[in-house]
């Protein structure tokens, strides 16, 4: 086990930021901490890294208790914080070299690692640039390079794609996958469910400092009643027809807004075929049809009654 | 020592503003040194009073003797013996002293009668007092011989007076030594040094503190296997090396400017005093580094502290010219004691414990400020850290 968090409690006065939080991270997995802003993800990460004191609970990393002076543990951790933490006065190369040298003393070895990191994040052409000259996306990549240059066993990424353009985001996510393929265990926190869904092999969904669900994305989706969502463009639909659709097999709810019919189904088979048969029988003409499987947002919505981005 | 090395990489980026300060300081200290020098004399030349000599009596050896004696210390001006001309001469300072020998003066003097000379002088003139002294000296000596030797001729009398008055006491100016002018220039240089030291050290140290106190970088460093104590120690070491380097650079500058005049004990004490002040400024910079949150605040505070301290404590204006109220406030600032120490060092000719005592006590007061400032900084820093966790 790489990370073990047991009954972690952190209070800020009367506010309980972490409420008996427990989870484990196994070696080689990409572990996702998903939750809305303020759900306690960053607080949990800060406690794991011993940046924050906590009131109760246990934290183990690499099967050893984590503490502020556990330097042998810290040596194997790479941290990429939500806020970019680099020196404005140093160049891209010097920044990566600085953070790498906190872990690796051998200058020759370090030179190779810094070059690898530069190559990994695609900043080779920017090595002499100062951070202020980099775009937001490139700056995030530099932040990542600073965190991973020393090739840690465990990499913790706290919302690394906040305020990043789609191209850079894809680049970052691909990079994380490659790091994992190279053997690093990843803890990835985000409030972007798409990213977590795309990236993580195991996910913990947090709300109000508690774990509300955990498992693989399939397991999480399996926990809810929602099977699929079908949306259809229809230019005219009577209330009679809407009521008839509500009575079709597996239908959970029906909405007809702005010429779009949205139907939520409970788990079941052949929902689309049944719906198309209904349109044909009742001579209802329709435009485009979309079928969506449930997302993690649906999981969160069903469990908490609110959207992830609320 | 990565943090120590990074410290100097960051300082390198500040080399432009730092060098501007140093060039400005160098120029100003040279100018101030020379202005200071021109006001200090280390030689003595007797000034001569312009005297109008009018003898209304008969010419005599005694009066000629007086004229010759006075001529050695005065310059005679030729003015017509008319009241309006003499008044004009006094008004326009063509003459500062009009000496009139009345009729029968020599005869009366030689027979032992009480005699007086007439004089007209510029009111409040120092030179007239000096001329009075010379005339009195001449006639008092003459009176001494006349009273004790009734048969003495005027020629003999004048010869004796001349012989007596030729005796002079040699005056050697020892208090400031032979390098008074140079010592004074060095005092100016070292008196002005706090301004540049405050600016450079506050700029350098607080810039570094601003960078390393950035919560994001601090947390990032805390995640690494380098202990917090090691990080802080390396930053402290960097600050000390930087501050001492600045001080050493200015001392080398003084060596280059004043060369052999620096090779004496006074200069050693000037250097020690400036080093002590450097330590105090370093601790002050630590405090500022903990308090400030932005580069704008940094430059503002740096200017307020450096200019405020320098104007209040006698760095720019001599302490003698400051009011008592200002000096009362200045006593709570370390540069006041630095200037006091410099003044005492500049006047030192004998380096015994009694003379060095005040200098050492002023330096200890400066160090006291350093200890107090560091204590406040540590308390604030601890409180800040607790807030961060």
TrEMBL record, chain A:
> What's its EC?
3.6.3.-
Q: Which UniProt keywords apply?
A: ATP-binding, Hydrolase, Nucleotide-binding
Xref: Gene3D superfamilies: P-loop containing nucleotide triphosphate hydrolases
Q: Please give the InterPro entries that the UniProt record associates with this protein.
A: AAA+_ATPase, ABC_transporter-like_ATP-bd, P-loop_NTPase
The UniProt record lists the ABC transporter domain at 3-233
The GO terms describing molecular function are: ATP binding; ATP hydrolysis activity
Q: What is this protein called?
A: Daunorubicin/doxorubicin resistance ATP-binding protein DrrA
Automatic annotation (TrEMBL), chain B:
Which InterPro entries does the entry mention? ABC-2_transporter_component (IPR051449), ABC2_TM (IPR013525)
List GO terms (cellular component aspect): plasma membrane
Q: Which UniProt keywords apply?
A: Cell membrane, Membrane, Transmembrane, Transmembrane helix
Major place of localization?
Answer: membrane
Membrane-topology descriptor = Multi-pass membrane protein
Q: Where are the transmembrane segments?
A: 14-35, 192-215, 236-258, 270-292, 359-380
Please indicate which superkingdom the organism of origin belongs to. Answer: Bacteria
All residue ranges annotated as the ABC-2 type transporter transmembrane domain in the record? 19-374
User: Any idea which GO molecular function terms this record carries?
Assistant: ABC-type transporter activity
**Compartment(s) where it occurs, according to its Swiss-Prot or TrEMBL record:** Cell membrane
Q: What protein name does the entry list?
A: ABC-2 family transporter protein
Q: Which organism is it from?
A: Ruminiclostridium hungatei
């Amino acid at each position: 086990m790489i990370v073990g968090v047991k009954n972690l409690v952190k209070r800020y006065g009367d506010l309980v930021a972490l409420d008996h939080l427990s989870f484990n991270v196994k070696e080689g997995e990409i572990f996702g901490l998903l939750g809305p802003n303020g759900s306690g993800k960053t607080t949990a990460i800060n406690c794991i890294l011993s940046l924050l004191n906590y009131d109760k609970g246990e934290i183990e990393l690499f099967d050893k208790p984590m503490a502020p002076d556990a330097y042998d543990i810290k040596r194997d951790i790479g941290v990429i914080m939500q806020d970019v933490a680099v020196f404005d006065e140093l160049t891209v190369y010097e920044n990566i070299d600085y953070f790498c040298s906190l872990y690796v003393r051998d200058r020759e070895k370090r030179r190779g690692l810094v070059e690898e990191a530069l190559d990994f994040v695609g900043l080779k052409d920017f090595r002499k640039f100062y951070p202020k000259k980099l775009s937001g996306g490139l700056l995030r990549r530099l932040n990542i390079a600073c965190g991973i240059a020393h090739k840690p066993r465990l990499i913790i990424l706290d919302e690394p794609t906040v305020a990043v353009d789609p191209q850079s985001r894809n680049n970052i996510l691909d990079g994380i996958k490659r790091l994992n393929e190279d053997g690093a265990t990843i803890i990835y926190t985000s409030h972007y469910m798409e990213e977590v869904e795309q990236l993580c092999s195991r996910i913990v969904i947090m709300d109000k400092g508690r774990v509300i669900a955990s498992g693989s994305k399939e397991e999480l989706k399996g926990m809810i009643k929602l099977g699929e969502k079908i949306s259809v463009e229809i230019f005219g639909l009577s209330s009679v027809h809407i009521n008839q659709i509500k009575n079709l097999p597996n239908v959970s709810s029906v909405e007809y807004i702005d010429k779009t019919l949205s139907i939520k189904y409970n788990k079941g088979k052949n929902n689309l075929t049944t719906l198309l048969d209904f349109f044909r029988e009742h001579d209802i003409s329709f435009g485009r049809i979309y079928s969506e499987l449930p997302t993690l947002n649906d999981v969160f919505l069903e469990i908490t009654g609110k959207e992830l981005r609320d | 020592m990565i943090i120590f090395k990074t410290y100097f990489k960051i300082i390198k980026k500040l080399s432009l503003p730092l060098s501007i300060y140093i060039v400005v300081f160098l120029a100003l200290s040279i100018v101030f040194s020379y202005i200071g020098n021109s006001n200090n004399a280390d030689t003595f030349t007797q000034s001569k009073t312009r005297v109008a000599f009018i003898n209304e009596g008969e010419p005599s050896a005694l009066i000629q003797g007086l004229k010759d004696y006075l001529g050695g210390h005065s310059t005679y001006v030729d003015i017509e013996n008319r009241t309006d001309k003499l008044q004009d001469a006094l008004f326009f300072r063509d003459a500062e002293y009009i000496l009139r020998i009345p009729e029968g003066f020599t005869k009366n003097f030689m027979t032992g009668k009480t005699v007086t000379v007439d004089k007209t002088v510029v009111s409040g003139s120092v030179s007239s007092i000096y001329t009075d002294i010379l005339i009195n000296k001449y006639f008092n000596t003459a009176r001494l011989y006349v009273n004790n030797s009734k048969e003495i001729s005027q020629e003999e009398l004048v010869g004796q007076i001349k012989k007596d008055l030729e005796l002079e006491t040699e005056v050697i100016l020892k208090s400031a030594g032979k390098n008074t002018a140079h010592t004074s220039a060095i005092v100016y240089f070292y008196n002005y040094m706090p301004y540049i030291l405050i600016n450079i050290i506050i700029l350098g140290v607080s810039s570094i503190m601003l960078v390393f106190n950035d919560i994001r970088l601090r947390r990032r460093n805390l995640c690494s296997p380098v202990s917090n104590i090691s990080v802080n120690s390396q930053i402290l070491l960097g600050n000390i090396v930087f501050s001492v380097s600045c001080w050493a650079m200015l001392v080398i500058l003084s060596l280059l400017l004043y060369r052999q005049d620096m090779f004496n004990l006074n200069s050693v004490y000037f250097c020690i005093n400036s080093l002590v002040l450097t330590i105090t400024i370093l601790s002050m910079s630590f405090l500022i580094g903990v308090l400030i949150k932005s580069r704008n605040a940094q430059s503002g505070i740096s200017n307020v502290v450096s200019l405020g301290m320098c104007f209040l404590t006698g760095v720019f204006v001599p302490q003698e010219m400051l009011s008592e109220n200002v000096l009362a406030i200045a006593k709570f600032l370390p540069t006041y004691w630095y200037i006091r120490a410099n003044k005492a060092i500049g006047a030192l000719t004998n380096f015994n414990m009694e003379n060095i005592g005040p200098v050492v006590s002023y330096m200890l007061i400066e160090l006291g400020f350093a200890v107090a400032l560091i204590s406040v900084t540590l308390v604030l820093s601890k409180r800040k850290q607790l807030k961060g966790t």
